[in-house]
Amino acid sequence: MEQTDKNLFQIGEVTKALGVTRRMLINYENLGLLTPAVRHDNRSFRYYSADNMVHIRIIRTLQDLGLSLPEIRSYFDDTTHLDEQIERLLQLRNQLDQYIAQLKLRQIHTSAPEVCHVTLPAFTAFCREFHGVDLERKTAELRQTYIHAVKHYQIDLHNRMRIQIPVDSNLDGTYIIPVVSESKGKDIRTFPQVSAICIYYRGAYENFPAVHARLLEYARMNGMTLHGYFSNIFMEGPPTHGGNKDAYITQIALPIKFVQ
């Protein structure tokens, strides 16, 4: 290296310092995410500056957050139209919140679950209405709705199946199976992003009405205006725990419009 290169780093030094591989750095370069400070193509030598190393760490952080390399390229290239990246990160934040809640509920504790403020992301879903249906029948019909959706659509892996019911009726509502946004059909609906209060509940589905009542009381005490429905979002249930109802985990959400 020349004397002017004394503050640059060889590729081996970068891989050691940042815990990345040579292949990863070359891949970043090929995708236009990274430009070495010095590159001698005839000898395949690359030297990286301190700024390069900071930039590599940013790429790795965005990858750890769940963004793909093309999404990261778009993030760097476009500083004024970042709606898709923002939406993706909101989805990831929602997923992380759910997984953290799941882990907490799997701990043995006796304290009552707390009310959380969350954002439910927008999504597309295959839907079927139901009327006058008891809990046992709802469970069976939700499973059949899921089977139908799987056979006819690509399932959205980022959002979970759920049941939506009015706040004043537990017997009527909608079975909702999230599918990819490109899905088309008479039973396909798009749900907007909404703010909500929720309780991550561990236990039998029979106890949902008590959780609903607690959320309604919390909303009343805090001057919240409601959208008028509950969304029971199933995180762990019979497919995971069989008949062990005490192990079921559900995100029970009450969407709100605003706080007075």
Descriptive overview:
The structure is a single chain. The protein contains 8 helices and 12 strands. It has 260 residues and is an alpha+beta fold. Strands 4, 5, 6, 7, 8, 9, 10, 11 and 12 form a 9-stranded antiparallel beta sheet that branches. A 3-stranded antiparallel beta sheet has the order 1-3-2.
The oligomerization state is: single chain
H and E order: EHHEEHHHEEHEEEEHEEHE
Which structural class fits the helix and strand makeup?
A: alpha+beta
Q: Estimate nothing, just give the exact number of structural domains.
A: 2
Question: What's the pLDDT, averaged over the residues?
Answer: 86
Can you say what the CATH homologous superfamily of the largest domain is? Regulatory factor, effector binding domain
Summarize the structure.
The chain has 260 residues and is α+β, with helices and mostly antiparallel strands. Helices cover 39% and strands 27% of the residues.
Q: What's the SSE blueprint?
A:
Elements: E1 9-10, H1 11-18, H2 22-30, E2 38-40, E3 45-48, H3 50-64, H4 69-77, H5 83-106, E4 116-120, E5 123-130, H6 135-152, E6 162-166, E7 173-179, E8 188-191, E9 194-202, H7 208-221, E10 224-226, E11 229-236, H8 238-241, E12 249-259
Antiparallel strand pairs: 1-3, 2-3, 4-9, 5-7, 5-8, 6-7, 6-11, 9-12, 10-12, 11-12
Notable characteristics:
single chain; 260 residues; alpha+beta; Multidrug-efflux Transporter Regulator, Chain: A, Domain 2; Multidrug-efflux Transporter 1 Regulator Bmrr, Chain A; 2 domains; three-stranded antiparallel β-sheet; 8 helices; 27% strand
